[in-house]
């Protein structure tokens, strides 16, 4: 089993197009539909728009698998929620390694309180 995510890094400028990743995504979708026999194309935005309840079940199931430690996603970076904008900028500028960027819950203590 394996998974490939086309849009994990920032925008890739392409010749006569806004983002080269769109061409790669279209090519991979074509391969999944017409070439590979044992592959599935899953677009989370498309799936959410078509069937939000099914999407919620998928997310819930993935959270269950992670809690049981059945799967362990590759985490490239972690940041608290107050640094989401910085994390997004790092992703767009390709300053993160391959994997998932995780935003952690808000910190409840200041640096002074932690000491």
Write a brief structural summary.
The protein has helices at residues 20-34, 44-50, 52-67, 84-92, 111-114, and strands spanning 75-80, 100-104.
Strand order of the largest sheet: 1-2
Radius of gyration, in Å, reads: 18 Å
What fraction of residues sit in β-strands? 5-15%
Helix content: 40-55%
Number of helices, counting only DSSP H or I runs of 4 residues or more = 5
Order of helices and strands: HHHEHEH
Protein architecture, described:
This protein has 5 helices and 2 strands. Helix 2 (44-50) crosses helix 3 (52-67). The protein is mostly helical. The protein is globular and about 50 Å long.
Question: What's the structural blueprint in terms of helices and strands?
Answer:
Elements: H1 20-34, H2 44-50, H3 52-67, E1 75-80, H4 84-92, E2 100-104, H5 111-114
Parallel strand pairs: 1-2
């Amino acid at each position: 089993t394996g998974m490939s995510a086309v849009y994990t890094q920032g925008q890739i400028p392409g010749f006569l197009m806004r983002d080269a990743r769109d061409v790669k995504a279209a090519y991979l979708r074509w391969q999944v539909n017409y070439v590979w026999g044992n592959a599935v194309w899953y677009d989370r935005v498309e799936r959410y728009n078509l069937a939000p309840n099914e999407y919620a079940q998928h997310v819930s199931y993935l959270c269950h698998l992670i809690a049981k430690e059945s799967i362990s996603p590759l985490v490239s970076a972690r940041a608290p929620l107050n640094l989401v904008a910085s994390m997004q900028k790092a992703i767009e500028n390709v300053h993160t390694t391959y994997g998932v960027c995780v935003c952690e819950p808000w910190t409840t203590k200041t640096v002074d309180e932690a000491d």
